[in-house]
């Protein structure tokens, strides 16, 4: 997995990491305590140094806030108030501040002020058809296979002409993704409420020309910035690589629309930007775009109330939050992994299995905190290759729970395409109820089984 920083929580910001991978390289995530507010977990988390996210109680005057910040020695860095916060009745938002002291030292001082509802570090997160596509025909795509009993059985669905729908959208919260890739361009979604290139915020979400999504790390409309966006591109290919085109790979769904919310950069991603990314897709859903789910192949940091609240806003809008269980080989029931351990009902937490049905050596698990297993070891998918000046379409094999997660996101898209109007709860139930019992997952996840889309 790669590392992500959160603008919302200071001391924990540097501890959030991508749940997935470098090529042939498995990274681990920080362990977390079973207590969501465990200081041991948060103390070990990566955070943005000298930053805090502060939530003031309703009704606190501007002068009082200024007084408190002055006593803390804090400087305002950003007021985070998304459209979705306002729609939920929160007109206060969250305040990101810079401090002259370490985040955890500052946290203890915030307890002296009754006007503060909560304060937290700005955590850092990191990554964790019959087809004529070459990587399928040569057997590389075992995760899609019906010949391998431990694959997702997507090939069985393809054979029954169940290949997805362009009316279904999946949001990729990750790095950017290469929407011009030869195996992705046909499935690259656009924001229908925005007019490209006119420099105007047509849809009123505060972002200009967010046609393919938005880069919250760079604060611009460029959702693909080169070969460094390999993780997000790999995830995209597993969800919706174009099938039957004689090129490369095939995703779980051959027809789908993908949109990007880039919040992971070269140093990872922050809580602050994760919140904005989640709210971005919630806003599009409320506006009428059929956002079925977001794929979240990242993790790290400690408990964030602000991020949990954002996930709940997505839940209220009917958007699934499908996320990686983590790569720390640990029991998430005992040692919490975020965001997969949040209690929101729209979360599906995904463990990784191998091509022989075993729980991947790196994969975290949890009888009550992880929902299902899916292919995550040696997964071939799309990546950008070349140099900064010359980027071309390529393919690579990665491993991680980051790779397992998009199999489930693709499954959500497939079910939604076959059952228009299905609610998020119905889609989640269908995915979990269709899981195939698997010995390596018995007692290791809620279903005790692995992803199987053949009966959708």
From TrEMBL:
Per UniProt, residues of the Peptidase S8/S53 domain are 166-437
Family membership, please give it.
Belongs to the peptidase S8 family.
Q: Where is the Fervidolysin-like N-terminal prodomain domain?
A: 37-122
Q: Where is the active site?
A: 174 (charge relay system), 231 (charge relay system), 402 (charge relay system)
The family database entries (InterPro entries) matched by this protein are listed as:
Fervidolysin-like_N_prodom, Peptidase_S8/S53_dom, Peptidase_S8/S53_dom_sf, Peptidase_S8_His-AS, Peptidase_S8_Ser-AS, Peptidase_S8_subtilisin-like, Peptidase_S8_subtilisin-rel, PfSUB1-like_cat_dom
Query: What is the annotated signal peptide range for this record?
Result: 1-19
Keyword ATP-binding belongs to the record: no
Q: State the UniProt keywords alphabetically.
A: Hydrolase, Protease, Serine protease, Signal
Gene Ontology biological-process annotations: proteolysis
What Pfam families does UniProt report for this protein, alphabetically?
Fervidolysin_NPro-like, Peptidase_S8
Taxonomic lineage of this organism?
Bacteria, Pseudomonadati, Bacteroidota, Cytophagia, Cytophagales
- Full protein name: Peptidase S8
């Amino acid at each position: 997995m790669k590392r992500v920083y959160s603008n919302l929580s200071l001391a924990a910001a540097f501890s959030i990491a991508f749940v997935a991978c470098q090529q042939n390289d498995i990274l681990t995530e920080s362990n977390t305590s079973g207590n969501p507010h465990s200081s041991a977990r948060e103390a070990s988390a990566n955070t943005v140094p000298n930053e805090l996210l502060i939530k003031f109680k309703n009704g606190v005057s501007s002068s009082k806030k200024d007084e408190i910040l002055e006593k803390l020695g804090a400087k305002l860095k950003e007021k985070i108030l998304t459209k979705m916060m306002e729609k939920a009745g929160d007109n206060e938002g969250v305040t990101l501040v810079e401090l002259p002291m370490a985040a955890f030292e500052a946290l203890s001082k915030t307890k002296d002020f009754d006007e503060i509802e909560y304060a937290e570090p700005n955590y850092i997160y990191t990554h964790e058809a019959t087809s004529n596509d070459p990587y399928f025909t040569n057997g590389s795509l075992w995760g899609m296979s019906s010949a391998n009993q431990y694959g997702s059985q997507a090939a069985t669905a393809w054979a029954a002409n169940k290949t997805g729908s362009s009316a279904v959208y999946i949001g990729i919260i990750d790095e950017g993704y290469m929407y011009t890739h030869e195996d992705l361009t046909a499935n690259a979604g656009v924001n229908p409420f925005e007019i490209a290139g006119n420099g105007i915020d047509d849809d009123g979400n505060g972002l200009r020309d967010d046609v393919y999504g938005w880069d919250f790390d760079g604060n611009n409309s460029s959702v693909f910035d080169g070969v460094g966006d390999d993780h997000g591109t790999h995830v995209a290919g597993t969800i919706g690589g174009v099938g039957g085109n004689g090129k490369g790979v095939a995703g779980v769904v051959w027809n789908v629309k993908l949109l990007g919310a880039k919040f992971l950069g070269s140093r990872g991603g922050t809580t602050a930007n994760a919140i904005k990314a989640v709210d971005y897709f919630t806003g599009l859903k409320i506006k009428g775009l059929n956002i079925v789910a977001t794929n979240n192949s990242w993790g790290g940091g400690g408990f964030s109330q602000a991020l949990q609240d954002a996930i709940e806003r997505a839940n209220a809008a009917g958007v699934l939050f499908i996320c990686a269980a983590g790569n720390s080989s640990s029991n998430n029931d005992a040692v919490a992994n975020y965001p997969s351990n949040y209690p929101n009902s729209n979360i599906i937490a995904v463990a990784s299995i191998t091509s022989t049905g075993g729980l991947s050596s790196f994969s975290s698990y949890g009888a009550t905190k992880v929902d299902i297993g899916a292919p995550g070891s040696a997964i071939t998918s799309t990546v950008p290759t070349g140099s900064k000046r010359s980027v071309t379409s390529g393919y690579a094999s990665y491993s991680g729970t980051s790779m397992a997660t998009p199999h489930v996101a693709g499954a959500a898209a497939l079910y939604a395409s076959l059952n228009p109007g299905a609610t998020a709860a119905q889609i989640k139930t269908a995915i979990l109820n269709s899981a195939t019992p698997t010995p390596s997952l018995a007692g290791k996840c809620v279903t005790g089984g692995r992803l199987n889309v053949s009966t959708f």
